[in-house]
Design brief:
Keywords: Membrane, Transmembrane, Transmembrane helix. The chain crosses the membrane at residues 23-46. This is Prepilin-type N-terminal cleavage/methylation domain-containing protein. This protein is α+β, with helices and mostly antiparallel strands. The protein has one helix at 19-73, and strands at residues 74-79, 85-86, 89-93, 98-104, 107-112, 115-118, 124-133, 141-150, 161-169.
Length: 172
């Protein structure tokens, strides 16, 4: 008997996805990808913030160490006078020279014999520098207050500022 094609069984294949299944899988993949990208951006932002904090703290250690060594080596404090405060510290060194410490253009500067040396690194600004002479006569102590900030303070990742305070005594 010839075959007419009417009694042919059509077998359906269950190997493909329906349109709804494809849409669901695409949505799930999109959600997972969005989550991964968001996580990666947060981690990158935290790394940048951590770098900025480390940079400021390293700058503060350097500034405090250099100022402490200079104050320890000084014979006397010329300015500010005992009990007073000011934005400039003038020390009389053992060789008779005067060393001035002040802020110039958001940089901490040591001025010795008219030669200025920037103490803070590029990218770090100094503000609110204040010295208080706590001693009397030739000896004494100096209280130091200052703020350090990353110059990219407008950036959320790199913006960081911190205040520092310490007291250093003359060794004489």
């Amino acid at each position: 008997m010839p075959h007419t094609g009417r009694d042919v069984d059509v077998k359906k294949s269950n190997f493909g996805f329906t349109l709804i299944e494809t849409a669901i899988y695409a949505a799930l993949a999109g959600i997972a990808l969005t989550g991964f990208v968001t996580f990666a951006l947060v981690v990158a932002g935290l790394k940048s913030k951590s770098y900025a904090i480390g940079e400021i703290n390293a700058g503060a250690r350097q500034v405090l160490d250099l100022m402490a060594r200079r104050i320890n080596a000084a014979d006397s404090i010329e300015s500010p006078i005992a009990g007073a405060s000011g934005g400039t510290l003038v020390l009389r060194m053992a060789d008779g020279a005067s060393l001035s410490v002040y802020v110039s253009g958001e940089r901490l500067v040591f001025d010795l014999f008219g030669e200025t040396t920037n103490i803070t690194a590029d990218g770090i600004s100094v503000s609110d520098l204040n010295f208080t002479n706590l001693g009397s006569g030739q000896g004494g102590s100096v209280k130091i207050n200052f703020n350090l900030a990353n110059e990219n303070a407008d950036s959320r990742e790199f913006g960081y500022s911190r205040g520092y305070e310490t007291t250093v005594s003359l060794r004489k």
